[in-house]
């Protein structure tokens, strides 16, 4: 096993360091965030930092990178207050990855990357039509992270749409049924496969050590 101390990590070439640090946290959720600006211009961006923050109220957060360049997704959420989070199906990974390009303000990533938008009811932000799990979000809070200039966007779940066959009898979604993907590093995509499901932990039923 190779050991890298902090000094060695800091001395890595920038691109190599970015890839390493992005990968060491493991497989991250792969989502497309859909927004629209005040003029109705649609925007779509791939995000790998979505995280559950609580269920009552139902809150989800994600990290937006430093505002050193235009961040159309962040600007649209700030101005309009609504956005969508869409799981990425296996068959859409190439188009989804393309949304990470630095498109100009007037360009819709939906159109440029060959991804069809969809509107559900009167929700104001666009969803990804082919996504098997779509979440409608309302902005609740923006938390600056001064140490590196990023911000956490915190939203409250307004609606959820999913393929019905993925819902188990116990109320849990089987994500492998949805055939969605995860991300490692900057550009590696992985299938999700359910390995096991365990009951609620009881302290007198600890598994045996098999090391």
Automatic annotation (TrEMBL):
UniProt keyword annotations, A-Z? Flavoprotein, FMN, Plasmid
Q: Where is the Flavin reductase like domain?
A: 30-165
Q: Which SUPFAM superfamilies match?
A: FMN-binding split barrel
The record's InterPro entries line, in alphabetical order, gives: Flavin_Rdtase-like_dom (IPR002563), Split_barrel_FMN-bd (IPR012349)
- Give any Pfam family that matches: Flavin_Reduct
- Similarity comment text for this entry: Belongs to the flavoredoxin family.
- By what name is this protein known? Flavin oxidoreductase
């Amino acid at each position: 096993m190779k050991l890298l101390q902090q000094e060695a990590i800091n001395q890595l070439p920038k691109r190599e360091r970015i890839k390493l640090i992005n990968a060491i946290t493991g497989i991250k959720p792969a989502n497309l965030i859909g927004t629209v600006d005040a003029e109705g211009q649609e925007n779509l961006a791939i995000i790998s930092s979505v995280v559950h923050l609580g269920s009552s109220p139902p809150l989800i957060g994600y990290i937006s990178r430093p505002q050193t360049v235009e961040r159309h997704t962040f600007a649209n959420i700030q101005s309009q207050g609504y956005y969508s989070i869409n799981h990425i199906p296996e068959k859409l990974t190439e188009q989804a990855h393309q949304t990470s390009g630095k498109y100009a303000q007037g360009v819709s990533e939906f159109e440029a990357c060959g991804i069809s938008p969809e509107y559900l009811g009167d929700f104001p932000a666009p969803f990804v039509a082919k996504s098997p799990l779509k979440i409608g979000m309302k902005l609740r809070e923006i938390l600056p992270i001064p140490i590196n200039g990023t911000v956490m966007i915190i939203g409250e779940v307004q609606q959820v749409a999913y393929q019905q066959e993925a819902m188990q009898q116990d109320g849990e979604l089987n994500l492998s049924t949805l055939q969605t993907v995860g991300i490692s590093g900057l550009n590696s995509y992985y299938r999700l496969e359910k390995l096991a499901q365990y009951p609620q932990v009881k302290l007198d039923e600890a598994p045996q050590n098999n090391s």
